[in-house]
Write a structure and sequence with these properties.
With about 240 residues, this protein is α+β, with helices and mostly antiparallel strands. The protein has a single domain, classed as archaeoglobus fulgidus dsm 4304 superfamily (archaeoglobus fulgidus dsm 4304 fold, 2-Layer Sandwich), CATH 3.30.2170.10. The protein contains 6 helices and 8 strands. Strands 3-2-1-4-5-8-7-6 form an 8-stranded mixed β-sheet, with helices on both faces. Strand 2 and strand 3 form a beta hairpin. Helix 3 crosses helix 4. It binds 2 DNA strands through strand 1.
Amino acid sequence: MKLEQILYPENVDLARRVQVHLLKKLKLRPLTESPRLLAAVDAAFTEELVLAAVCLFSFPELELLEEQTGIEPVRFPYIPGFLSFREGPAIYHTLQKLSRKPDLLLVDGQGIAHPRRLGIATFLGIILDTPSVGCAKSHLVGEFRMPARSGGSCCRLTHRGQLVGYVLRSRTAVRPIFVSPGHLVSPRDALNLVRKGLRGFRVPEPLRRAHHLTQNLKLSPPGNKPCRNKNSGHN
DNA sequence: GCGACAG
DNA sequence: ATCTTGTCGC
C-alpha cells in the first residue's frame, strides 16, 4: 500500500481499511536494548492548519538534542478512533526532518488501546518502523480499576480480554494518564519508559516540551521572520 | 435505540 | 484540540 493512501485516505471507510491493513504489520515484543534517542511528538490546530512539533531527547538523561516543526492544511476531521489521519501526516513529515533517527517515539495519544489496536502511536510506529509508546490524557477504550490516589499507582487496562496498557496516576491526586504500547515494545516497556520520563509532572517531560513548541509555533509562524534593517538599531 | 467517544 | 475570565486553593 502506498504511503500517500495511508496518510491521506479520502473518507472514514478508507481510513478504517488503512488501519486494518497496518494492523497486520503490528509487532509487540519486549525491547532488547534501552533506547538512546527519544522523539516526543505533538500537534496543535487552527481552523485550517495542523501544526506539528518534534523534540529529540537523549534517553534516559532527557537532554534536548534537536527540535523540528512542520505545518500542513487540515485534511481530515477529528473522529474518535481516527486521530492519526488528522494529526499523523504533519507529524510524520516533521519526524522526517530530524538529522538522526529516534529509537523510540513518545506520542500524545493511544497505542493499541484503540478499537482496532491502531491508535496514533501504533500508526506512527508502524509506518516509520520504529518502537513507539502512546501516552493519552484521557480514556478511549478498555476496562480498568481506578488507580489509588497516590502518585505512581497504576492499574491494568484491558480490552476484549487483552492487556492493552496501563492507567497510571503519575502524581498524587491528579487524573491518571493512559499508557499503551504503540509498536515494537511490550505493555511493560511502555509503562517503564513513561515512568522514566515523568520527572514529577502529570505527563512525560518530553511531551510537555513538544506541546510548548507546538503552541509557540502558533504564535510565531515561520514566514513572519523579522526582517533585518527594521528597527534593529544597528544600521 | 442508548451511551461512549484519544486530540 | 480550541474558545475563554475569573477564581479556588496550596
